[in-house]
Write a structure and sequence with these properties.
Chain B: This is Ferrous iron transport protein B. Chain B: Probable transporter of a GTP-driven Fe(2+) uptake system. Chain B: Residues 12-197 form the FeoB-type G domain. The complex is a heterodimer of chains A (77) and B (730). With 77 residues, chain A is an alpha+beta fold. Helix content of chain A is 18%, strand content 40%. Chain A has a single domain, classed as Ferrous iron transport protein A (FeoA) (SH3 type barrels). Chain A is built from two helices and six strands. In chain A, a hairpin with a 2-residue loop joins strand 4 and strand 5. The chains are: A alpha+beta (77), B alpha/beta (730).
Chain lengths: 77, 730
């Protein structure tokens, strides 16, 4: 299921996949880049955490736990 | 570099092991050094420093080659120091751990500045792990790239063209499997060559050239910054404000220059990182062919283990199993250790005969040591499980699942790791918080972790519960066992609620992050688990042993000797009492013992604090135990042993039985009734009774403020709750 054109990854539903376009927050961008999340990476939303507010995502082949605010700064094309 | 070669090696060569978290760096370190590791602290910082010795076969060139003569090669063994640096993602640190890596690798004058770097990368994640590699390479350090998890190359059908990778990155590349122990000999050879001939491994050109804005700043600062090259200078310009080796004056210059040239640190970092990815990504694509999707197993397992409903349930089951096993498995080795020390005490007493030296050895040293060593099985089992959960990758999942709950209490998902480890020992638990980047979350975790019931509380609980709860059971559930579980819940509940209280008081503008890597599940490397257990147990024996030994001896002295005259007066008084009341020898001896204890220095201390603790239901003898417990709570049992055994004729009785015989002279009731026992239990759940933890809190928070707050808060909590419990129950 494709994302609509360039939206934030916070407007996710489970099972959505898209390619990262850019980040909207420099502070978070630095950290995300460091752990290997970068424009061009394929992001898929796998599941929501048991008590909400966190998401289990896959960046390319690697699993990552991100908070909702952290996903919100990732733009998907 | 040249100066290093000319001067004789005044210091042992230092090899730094660097890599991303989860790259298997520590596995490789354990493989290279075995148990020849030393754990210390990085100077000036609190991060745990692991170092070890590595023996390299070497062709030693004797002094005298400098004049050009061809000297005879001397084959020998060279010992180098290998340092396991904390895992880091890049030269732009977010956590304390990462800061340390940047701090040491940008300080050529420092003691820990490596002569060579062994860079460890997970071969399945090269596309991420090469970021830090290219950064360190640009710092002009001799490097070898280790492709760890080489066992997965065959398993998953991954294909790596090692030679091509090596020629494109222009460093030696060695595939190693830390799990199977392959590739180590080759790695050692490369390290030896790297140290022998560093010039041959210098980079020809950097992976990254600083952008225009940065260049302006750099051209201005190169004169004042002690930098080896442009990239080194760039990092100093980025991080001058917190790097310890940059003098205050230089910091100001850097700041001025940054403002003047409009150098935006964050933007420059993002640009640099993107450019680096663009540089090395084609190299990875060119040399690595991906095989089958190897993480499908992880996906399946995580479908269950991190499931929205089953995930937390499974977590609870694992924890229940863990603590069940802890008590079930440790029972008989603990009995064994107790038996050994009892026999040892009896033996020593029989050999040496009565006398002050015998008393000191048996009641002080042996009883004290036995009281400590009896914990070993429980500590070993607890650390075994925690190391195992960490090894397979489960702890990261726990952090993910509970992050949102933790956030509500002002903590971070990563705090889960500390709160679980705290049940073994608060010290490593507090040290594990350094992965939490947000200061407030980290501080809260440090403050509340000592409220979780660590293993040193176990023997205190065991002894007191027998007075607090009758030994009855309903089916498989014993009342005492349930009470035990209840105390653990009390501890963790108190920890969470305290965090909430601190959260409301403390303000922090800092942003909080989760951004947690969930590594693939891997079967554990047993060597790593074993090394962890061994190290923790060893540290516990040495550190706790020292304190407890010292306190037992001091306490024994304090309770055997008294102010001049007081002991004699007690003896005369007992003698007259014996004569008037016609007591037999046993009664006389017991009376003398208790009167002398009261007259001793310890008795005076106990009496002095008695008024303060009477509302809690304690007498002056418990006062002595409380007082000594503030050094380390596990001293309680030893103190009880000393207080209730001195002078007594029957050494066969266990501490519990002696305590049960104790009668309160005012009321004529047993001292250890239900109310007092519960009150003591609650006191020991909450009170901050561990000097070692206070010391760690001081180190980790960088001052006396927080340890004092922590100590006061916990002690007040303990005092008030114990008083309430006693007043309600009595």
């Amino acid at each position: 299921m494709p994302f609509p054109r360039t939206t934030t990854a916070a407007l996710y539903t489970i099972g959505t996949t898209g390619v990262i376009d850019r980040f909207t927050n420099e502070n978070l961008a630095g950290k995300l880049l460091d752990i290997g999340v970068r424009p061009g990476s394929r992001l898929s939303i796998i599941r929501k955490s048991p008590f909400g507010s966190c998401w289990y995502v896959k960046i390319d082949r690697h699993c990552l736990a991100l908070r909702k605010q952290e996903l919100a700064c990732i733009l998907i094309k | 570099m040249h100066s290093n070669q000319v001067t004789a090696p005044a210091r042992t060569a230092v090899v730094g092991l660097v890599g991303n978290p989860n790259s298997g760096k520590s596995s490789l370190f354990n493989l290279l050094t075995g148990l020849r590791q030393r754990i210390g602290n990085f100077p000036g910082v609190t991060v745990e420093k692991k170092s070890g010795k590595l023996k390299l076969a070497e062709i030693r060139t004797p002094v005298g080659t400098m004049d050009g003569e061809i000297a005879e090669d001397v084959r020998g063994v060279r010992e180098v120091e290998i340092i396991d640096f904390p895992g880091a993602y890049s030269c732009y640190p977010t956590s304390l751990d990462e800061r340390l890596v940047v701090q040491e690798l940008t300080n050529p004058a420092g003691d820990l500045y490596p002569d060579a770097i062994v860079y460890v990368a997970d071969v399945t994640k090269l596309d991420k792990h090469l970021l830090l590699f290219t950064q360190l390479r640009d710092l002009d350090l001799p490097m070898v790239l280790v492709l760890n998890m080489a066992d997965l190359i065959e398993e998953t059908g991954l294909k790596v063209d090692v030679e091509r990778l090596s020629s494109r990155l222009r460093v030696p590349v060695v595939p190693v499997s830390a799990r199977q122990g392959t590739g180590v000999d080759e790695l050692k050879e490369v390290i030896a060559d790297l140290l022998r001939n560093p010039e041959a491994y210098r980079p020809e050109e950097p992976f990254y050239e600083p952008g225009t804005r940065a260049r302006d700043v750099l051209s201005e600062l190169r004169r004042v910054l002690p930098a080896r090259n442009n990239y080194h200078a760039l990092l100093l310009a980025h991080h001058a404000s917190w790097l310890k080796h940059i003098p205050e004056k230089t910091r100001h210059l850097v700041q001025e220059s940054r403002v003047k040239h409009g150098f935006h640190s964050l933007r420059a970092q993002v640009e640099e990182t993107m450019e680096r990815y663009d540089t090395f990504e084609p190299i990875v694509r060119d040399t690595v062919r991906r095989g089958t999707n190897q993480s499908s197993l992880t996906d399946k397992v995580d479908n269950v283990l991190t499931h929205q409903i089953f995930g937390p349930l499974i977590f609870v089951v694992i924890m229940v199993f863990l603590f069940q096993a802890l008590f079930a498995w440790s029972a008989w080795p603990m009995d064994g250790i107790e038996w050994i020390f009892e026999s040892l005490g009896t033996g020593v007493r029989a050999i040496l005969g009565p006398g002050w030296l015998t008393d000191l050895l048996v009641d002080g040293v042996i009883a004290g040591l036995g009281g400590v060593l009896v914990f070993i099985p429980q500590i070993a089992i607890l650390f075994f499980f925690i190391a195992l959960l960490e090894e397979v990758g489960y702890l990261a999942r726990a952090a993910y699942m509970f992050d949102s709950i933790m956030q509500r209490f002002g903590l971070n998902g990563r705090s889960v790791v500390a709160l679980i480890s705290g049940h073994a020992c608060a010290i490593p638990a507090i040290m594990s918080t350094r992965t939490i980047a947000n200061w407030k979350e980290r501080l809260l975790t440090i403050l509340v972790t000592p409220l979780t019931s660590c293993s040193a509380r176990i023997p205190v609980y065991v002894i007191l519960i027998s007075f607090a709860v009758p030994d009855v059971s309903w089916g498989p559930f014993g009342a005492q066992g349930l009470a035990f579980t209840g105390l653990y819940f009390l501890g963790i509940t108190a920890a969470m609620l305290s965090a909430l209280a601190f959260k409301l008081v403390l303000k922090s503008p800092e942003r909080s992050f989760l951004m947690l890597e969930l590594p693939e599940y891997r079967s554990p490397v047993w060597r790593n688990v074993g090394v962890t257990v061994w190290q923790k147990v060893k540290t516990f024996i040495v550190e706790a042993g020292k304190i407890i030994l010292l306190i037992s001896v001091v306490l024994w002295g304090l309770s055997t000797y008294g102010p001049p005259g007081a002991m004699d007066a007690a003896r005369t008084q007992v003698q007259s009492q014996v004569e008037t009341q016609g007591l037999d020898d046993d009664q006389a001896a017991d009376l003398l013992a208790s009167e002398q204890l009261e007259a001793s220095f310890a008795g005076h201390i106990g009496k002095a604090i008695e008024p303060a603790i009477r509302p809690l239901g304690y007498d002056w003898k418990i006062g002595i135990a409380l007082f000594s417990s503030f050094a380390a709570r596990e001293v309680f049992v030893g103190t009880m042993a000393i207080i209730y055994s001195i002078g007594s004729t029957d050494d066969e009785l266990r501490i519990q039985d002696r305590m049960a015989e104790e009668i309160n002279p005012r009321t004529g009731e047993p001292v250890y009734n239900q109310a007092t026992a519960w009150s003591l239990l609650v006191f020991y759940v909450f009170a901050m009774m561990c000097m070692a933890t206070t010391a760690v809190t001081k180190r980790e928070t960088g001052g006396w403020k927080w340890p004092i707050i922590q100590f006061t808060f916990m002690t007040v909590l303990a005092y008030v709750s114990a008083m309430v419990v006693y007043q309600v129950l009595s």
